[in-house]
Amino acid sequence: MLNLPNKLSILRIVLVPFFVAFLVYDFVPYHTLWALLLFLVASYTDHLDGKLARARNEITSFGKFLDPLADKILILSALVCFAQLRLCSVWVPLIVLLREFAVTSLRLVAVENGRVIAANLWGKAKTVTQMVASIYMLLIQTLASFGVPAGAAYIDWLSASPGVYAGLLLFGNMLLWLSCVMTIVSGIVYIRDNFDVLRHS
C-alpha cells in the first residue's frame, strides 16, 4: 500500500496534464492564472512529500525513485510549454531532457545492481532553480492575461510599455538558463559520484 508521501508524488504527476491544458489552451478566463496555481500546488507537494517521509519515517526505495521522477515530469512539461509558446529557446527543455535521460538511465542501471540513487543537494538545488524560474515565467504570463481580451499579449501597463514586458521576459530567460547550468552541473556530479555503477554493470 502506498504511503502518504508517495501519494503526494503521484498527485504531482496527475496534476501535470491539467497544468499543461490550462497553460497552453485559452479555454477559460485567466487560464494562465489557473496554470500558475496548479504549478504552485504541485511544487508544494514536492516540499511536503519529503518532509512527511522524514517526519513519519516513511522513506522508501520506491519514494526515492518516484519523487525525483515526478519533479522531472512537472518541470519538463513546463519547459516544453514555454518553448511551444515561444517564451524561451527550445534548447532549454532539450538540455534538461538530455540530462534527465542520462541520470535516469544511471538510476535504472543502479537499480539492477540493487542500489537506489537518491537525490543529492545538487539535484535539489537544480530542482529549486528550475521551479523558481518556471514560477516566475508563469507569473509574467498571468500578469499579462489580466484586463485584456483573450489572445492579447500585454496587460494595460505593458501595452503602453512593451519594453517592460520584454525586460521581464529577458530576466525570466536568464533564470531559465541559470537553471540549465545547475542542471548540467548536477548531472556531472551524479555521474561522477556514481561512476562505479557504470564500471561494474
> Sheet with the most strands?
none
From the N-terminal CA to the C-terminal CA, the straight-line distance is 31 Å
Helix content: over 70%
**H/E element sequence:** HHHHHHHH
Strand content: under 5%
What CATH architecture do you see?
Answer: Up-down Bundle
Shape: globular
Classification by helices and strands? mainly alpha
Provide structural commentary.
The protein is mainly alpha-helical and 201 residues long. The protein is 79% helix and 0% strand. It has a single domain (4-199), classed as Four Helix Bundle (Hemerythrin (Met), subunit A) (Up-down Bundle). The protein is built from 8 helices and no strands. Mean pLDDT is 83; it is low at 147-160.
Care to give the gist of this entry?
The protein has helices at residues 4-24, 31-55, 61-84, 91-112, 121-145, 156-160, 162-193, 195-199. With 201 residues, it is mainly α.
Features:
201 residues, mainly alpha, Four Helix Bundle (Hemerythrin (Met), subunit A), 79% helix, globular
Question: In terms of topology, how is this protein built?
Answer:
Layout: H1 4-24, H2 31-55, H3 61-84, H4 91-112, H5 121-145, H6 156-160, H7 162-193, H8 195-199
